Hints:
With about 160 residues, the protein is of the alpha+beta class. The chain has one domain (about 1-160). Helices cover about 40% and strands about 20% of the residues. It is built from seven helices and six strands; from the N terminus they run E-H-E-H-H-E-E-H-H-H-E-H-E. The chain has a six-stranded antiparallel β-sheet with strand order 3-4-2-5-1-6, with helices on both faces. Helix 1 (about 10-25) runs antiparallel to helix 7 (about 145-150).
Amino acid sequence: MSTVIGTFASRDQAEKAVRALRDKGFTEDEISVIAKGGGKGGDFETAADDMGGMAGASDGTAWGGALGGIAGLLAGVGALAIPGIGPIVAAGPLAATLSGAVTGGVAGGLLDLGVPEDRGQYYEQEVQKGRFLAVIDTESGMVEDAARIMRDNGAADVESH
């Protein structure tokens, strides 16, 4: 297995990339998206239900529409409180990984996928700045397709590991 990773400046770009990846045959078991959460004051349970996901953080965490339509394309949507970042929302298999190891943060979850620690910390900082992180964990023969699709849909910092 190989990991392709990249960041998007907007939710719309990330959604388009996920749709294109799904159209190319990538499954919800291969695609994860992480974004900074919406802050405080929203109704977390209602938002999680609307997104077809699971509750994974305190009720005070608002989704703020951070993953929007991506939630309908991926399984395992949840919200987490990550030290140093604050609330994040995650969809896909990485959501479960992060909920089990919150102390390692995003960088720790990426390390488990073969992303070097320094690059994982870089991507964690990008999420903290408000960028959307997409992670594709796929067969090595599909790496180029995943990277191309991500770049074609506006991804920056696309790497494979």
